[in-house]
Design goal:
single chain; alpha+beta; Alpha-Beta Plaits; 6-stranded antiparallel beta sheet; 10 strands; extended
Length: 579
């Protein structure tokens, strides 16, 4: 659908009413507050006095979140008073922050000690094994072989060459020779008070101790974060809402008496604002450019995530999210097309739901894509390949790959035509000139018509159409427009990836099953190897093709589909509303 029309409003507020008006706008939650343009007699406004106090509290809450791993985001219906919120927040910080800081400092201390001992152990483990029984040696290292009169002093370790003093000549003489050679460096062994091997053993014990202590502190912090999370989430969300109100005036213009606020909203909201907040005066205009408010609701809203990852439609352009809601799961299921892998994707959606807060949109995308995968698995008769034999509803991928290719290209042609006719609708809605519409929409339609004419041996009509389409593309894009015909063909055949990834998934699954079957004949351990091969093989196949399917389902939208009509560059509409 075309993104909705918005109104640009200027709100004039008496300074004495500013706090009250900000609160009412926050509760109304329907306006995108913009930065107010400079006006004569007005200057930039500033945050309200209490903003810094709330900012400091938010920093403390975010520190607690970081060290405990707790989540902070939740939603609220009403906003408690500023004084009550700050009092509760300061009491919470005073009660819990010192203990959490002590635990975190202790955790960091043990982590730092463990890393320090690991570095010392790394140095000792790189030394030649023949040095293990030496006590307090003087050792030099160099990246290349060290040339000495007594070459038997030089040993190769893990990554370097090492030279040991005290054999054959005096330590003082050899140390002096090493120091005069710029390529050598003395190994710092100040922490070694016994033999090298004894030092290694002691370091390993110290590392294990400090790692265990570090992990214990981490678990304590996580447990405290889990216990505090309900209160932590609620108070942080309320503080953030107050902070938004207190810093909102940074966008305003004001003088000694009045404050100017600029905002965008839907036409019907203007009257609501006037009714709900009688203290303000509203000046309303219809803008040429405005933020883009996306109107997707319910299930479609989840797929808005995929559209937004590409770009935000510009104001007055077409929002393709409803198309993405249908075609993304279709492409995903076509390419993965296995009942078993669909069930694994459903399991993944469930685990994401359990593990992550605010993951509903991703869970919805995964779930409907998983269902599509199961449906195509039934169509092609694939359940972990042929591990669990089922009769295909239509055909197996390898038995009718050419027919599946034709279906893939037909789906691509439908997708591309939908894009072209959407572009036509969009340009008509934007009241573009007939010339502009013809240049952008007509070539693809003419090319298709020409190909159909050539198929039915209407050579003159077909060739004339192709020449006309080429002329229009050249008119639109210049000399490079000549390549437009091949671009259309390349775009269409890009949909062959639907077949390609489906075959890749089925092919690897078939190979895993065959290899496992062959290994199962090994005496005694055949059954164990069979099960292990199936588990690891199908896990690998699922992971690789899940990634490929996810990327390519998005790519068919971003590259092939959106390129034919999408008008991006919009600014998202961010309603000033309670979390």
């Amino acid at each position: 659908m075309i993104t909705p029309e918005l109104k640009h409003v200027k709100l004039v507020v008496a300074n004495d009413d500013k706090r009250h008006v900000i609160r009412r706008l926050h509760e109304l939650g329907e306006l995108h507050i913009a930065t107010t343009e400079p006006h004569d007699g007005f200057s930039e406004d500033t945050s309200l006095d209490e903003a810094q106090r709330v900012s400091d509290l938010l920093l403390s809450y975010e520190y607690i979140q970081r060290v405990t791993g707790a989540t902070l985001q939740t939603s609220i219906d009403t906003l408690p008073s500023y004084n009550k919120t700050v009092e509760e927040a300061e009491q919470f910080i005073e009660t819990h922050l010192p203990e959490l800081q002590e635990l975190e400092e202790d955790r960091e201390h043990h982590d730092s000690r463990a890393q320090s001992y690991e570095e010392q152990l790394r140095i000792l483990e790189d030394l030649p094994d023949s040095f293990n029984d030496l006590a307090q040696p003087i050792i030099f290292t160099a990246p290349n072989h060290i040339s000495l009169e007594h070459d038997h002093h030089v040993k190769q370790g893990g990554k370097h060459y090492y030279a040991l003093t005290s054999q054959g000549i005096t330590k003082a003489q050899q140390t002096k020779a090493f120091l005069e050679d710029n390529t050598t460096t003395r190994v710092d062994l100040s922490y070694v008070s016994e033999t090298i091997q004894e030092a290694k053993t002691k370091l390993q014990e110290n590392i294990a101790y400090h790692q265990e202590e570090r992990d214990d502190r981490s678990l304590e912090l996580q447990a405290k974060g889990k216990a505090l999370q309900p209160k932590l989430k609620y108070t942080h969300t309320v503080l953030k809402a107050h902070h938004d109100e207190l810093t909102l005036p940074n966008k305003f213009q004001s003088n000694d008496d009045l404050t100017l606020i600029e905002a965008y909203c839907e036409p019907g909201i203007v009257d609501d604002v006037a009714t709900e907040i009688p203290e303000i005066t509203i000046l309303e205009t219809t803008p040429e450019e405005a933020p883009t408010k996306l109107k997707e609701n319910g299930f479609n809203k989840s797929f808005q995530t995929i559209t937004s990852m590409f770009d935000t439609p510009k104001y007055g352009a077409f929002d393709p999210t409803s198309y993405v809601t249908f075609f993304y799961p279709l492409f995903f299921g076509f390419m993965l097309s296995d009942i078993g892998y669909g069930l694994l994707t459903l399991l993944a959606a469930y685990l994401v739901k359990q593990r992550f807060d605010n993951s509903d949109h991703y869970v919805n995308i995964l779930s409907v894509s998983a269902i599509s995968t199961i449906i195509f698995g039934i169509i092609f008769g694939s359940f972990f390949g042929e591990l669990i034999p089922i009769e295909p509803l239509w055909t197996e991928q390898f038995e009718a790959s050419f027919d599946i290719l034709i279906v893939s290209l037909i789906i691509g042609l439908i997708h591309m035509n939908l894009a072209v006719f959407t572009d036509l609708y969009q340009r008509l809605a934007q009241q573009q000139t007939l010339t502009t519409i013809i240049k952008h929409v007509a070539p693809f339609i003419i090319v298709q018509t020409s190909v159909i004419a050539l198929y039915y041996q209407q050579v003159i009509a077909g060739v004339t159409g192709l020449i006309t389409a080429t002329a229009l593309l050249t008119w639109r894009d210049g000399f490079i427009g000549i390549l437009g015909l091949s671009d259309y063909l390349g775009t269409l055949f890009s949909y062959a990836r639907l077949l390609a990834l489906s075959l890749a998934t089925a092919g690897i699954a078939l190979a895993v099953n065959l290899i496992a079957q062959q290994l199962s004949t090994i005496p005694l351990i055949g059954s164990l190897i069979y099960a292990t091969t199936l588990i690891f093989g199908h896990t690998f196949n699922y992971a690789v093709n899940l990634l490929g399917t996810t990327i390519n389902a998005a790519r068919l939208h971003y590259v092939e589909f959106f390129d034919l009509f999408f008008q991006g560059g919009g600014t998202p509409f961010n309603a000033f509303q309670l979390p």
